[in-house]
Amino acid sequence: MEVQSLAVLREHLADLVLGTVFLFFGFVSCAIAVLRRRAQVRVLIWLGLWSGMYGGNLLLRTPVFTEALPHWIEVCRPFTANAMGFLMVVAGLMTWSELTLGKMRALTQGMAVAGLAIAVGGVGEFMATGTGAGLLPYNNLLAVCALVSLGTVVVAPKLSARLLAFPNRILTVSTVAFTADALYRNVGKWLSRPGPELPLVADDLIFAAFLFSFAWVAGEKVFANERRLLAIESELEIARQIQASILPTGTPEIDDLRIAAMYLPTAAVGGDFYDFLPVDRSHVGVLVADVSGHGIPAALIASMLKVAMQSVLACADEPALVMRTLNRTLSGQLRGQLISAAYLWLDMESKRALYSSAGHPPLLRWREGRLERMESNGLLFGVVPDLDYPVREISLNPGDRFLLYTDGMIEPENATGEAFGDRKLEESLREHERQSPAELAMRLIAEIRRWQPAAAAQQDDITLAVIDVA
């Protein structure tokens, strides 16, 4: 018995070793893809499934392995082997589709759909009759057609340059070898003129070379994407630092005023902007703006706002002129994007304020337990280059509280789709009426985060300026 067992083990040792290697390689490939969690690593998932199914099939045809299986797995072995035999073609085609471009990608995915249909039919036939051999020739024919078409693309330099994402000589050689082996085994059978029989282990070794060359190219694709993403992240960090440098580092010290501001972009950089124009200890202008869109394009325009603010220093006490100058300066540079903005001039000597805005949410004033919405709206910056903006005059009383904000404050929705809105904002102001401006700003941001579902991402930049008349 021992001699017989050793003989069986020697006979199937190659299948046992190669099957284990393929299965392990498939597991590692899928594990890396799961850890990365990016769309660019789909190729590793399909490659892992392809390798795992091939290795599983090798092990399932090895008596030493199958005899060690529990009985309930042994019962399922024929069905599993049948299903994997069909689905390997689908996994292989989907792996290829991740490395092809244009029409070749569409063709490969179309063949994968056809392969899936054949697999469903083959599995159904096996469940009904106990054998899935009826559709196996069609599965093999599809595999050969796929290899011939893909092999042609790989071998032809002009086609590979146009239809492959990562042309590679190693992949070319291994694809040609694998295609030749598949044609030799299958075409000979179809013509009823089989040639000299090659050992099955030769198929496995050729496939191993093909698979690992494929893994090499897939790895190049993934790492190239990783390098590109790292470069983008590095540039975004630089952009974030630049944007942080154009925002005020603190709030101005103005007699009888307490000011706080908060800025929360949706990503590394955002399209909101705020700035202060302090003239002396009794006069200050406050601007809050919101560029349409998000990310780097909006952030670039926000940085242009910082430059444009230098041109309005001399007229900081005239909100209409400030808004008109900013609109005229920026209109020719926006390339179709728009900016909403609000400007508040505070004169603590005369105890009055002047307010003007361009398509911006209203200025809020909290006075004696009541919330007032103050509008003085003109058109958004970028609609008409030369435009006059209305101005509203506001008296200042001790205890007044003003809020300038962008629409990211009121647009967040809860799990039922209800926006935070003006009503919830008013409730929060009433509840935290006695908080300082800085404390109120933090409380409001916390309220918004509690309002949204825990898994919901911030959808828009949030900027808030709170101003108290002491």
Structure description:
The chain has 470 residues and is α+β, with helices and mostly antiparallel strands. It has 2 domains: 2-235, Rhopdopsin 7-helix transmembrane proteins (Up-down Bundle), CATH 1.20.1070; 250-469, 4-Layer Sandwich (Phosphatase 2c, domain 1), CATH 3.60.40.10. It is 56% helix and 15% strand. It contains 14 helices and 11 strands. The protein has helices spanning 2-11, 13-36, 42-60, 63-66, 71-97, 102-129, 136-155, 157-163, 169-190, 200-246, 295-309, 319-331, 421-431, 437-451; strands at residues 257-264, 272-280, 283-291, 339-347, 352-358, 363-367, 370-374, 377-378, 392-395, 401-405, 462-469. Strands 2, 3, 4, 5, 8 and 9 form a 6-stranded mixed sheet that branches.
